Amino acid sequence: MKRRNRIAACRTLAAGVLAFVAFSATSPGVATARQPTADGPAARSVPLRVATYNIHAGAGEDNVFDLDRTADAVRALHADVIGLQEVDVHWDTRSNFTDEARELAERLHMRVFFAPIYDLPPAPEHTERRRYGVAILSRHPIVRAENHEITRLSTQETNPVPAPAPGFAEVTVRVRGTAVHIYSTHLDYRADPAVRRIQVDDMLGILAVDSGPKVLVGDFNAEPGAPELAKLWGPLADAAPQGGKTYPAVAPVKRIDVVAVSPEVTVTGAREEETAASDHRPVVADLLLHRRGF
After folding, report:
1. Which one of 47, 65, 122, 253 counts the least CB within 10 Å of its CB?
2. pLDDT at position 91, please?
3. Are 151 and 127 in contact, with CB atoms under 8 Å apart?
4. What pLDDT was estimated at residue 25?
5. Which helix (DSSP H) or strand (DSSP E) does residue 267 occupy?
6. Residue 38, in any domain of the structure
7. Containing domain of residue 147, as a range?
């Protein structure tokens, strides 16, 4: 898949980035992120805490919309960069037509890039377009942002067929002089893994264009050991191979919310957070970004 040209990327950045002042049994075939050694690279590295959270459009496990509760759950992660999935922007009554990306950024005093999967005409008696997708919140400067296309099976069509569609978010964040690529994704939810397999190929094609540290977070809708995810493990490693289950949030039975890192990143710790502010649990990972090569 080809990257958009620089002009389009700059337009996306200008439109989508809002700045506000105000953790075993490793699954077979799944690469494990390296851990620091006694004489490891810490002195030459930069720490970064990242998280992934499917916010269920601001509704908890109880299906009650409460963006204050969502914001409190995100704030409690104390993360520097957070990939969000199932984000509504003026979508419909389920989220009171709220711009969740902007609202969360304002409440958390973070920058945000929102990457819609769907961008539809306004609802009757409303003027803002209805949008739904993924987002990335950051405490650090976002120096570049892009909404990539990957193969999707639309939920808005009666008889959908796999086709390229947006909603794979990438930002380049500069952390103490070190640039890191952060990607937020939401893979197909259907039992048939065919579309997820194609999506893995699409994402790897996009990641291959970038150099330096990379962190892919998201709701994979499959556990890391699933066959359709196998190609990820090599280019990337699972940051939390001993991590607990993440879905559903109450009495979870599956680990489908994942942080994955490239070889230029060392994982110093990871965990899932117990909260019912969504139907998923968030995952937090503490990382070291290696300076060499920059």
Report:
1. 253
2. 98
3. no
4. 36
5. strand 265-272
6. no
7. 6-33+45-290
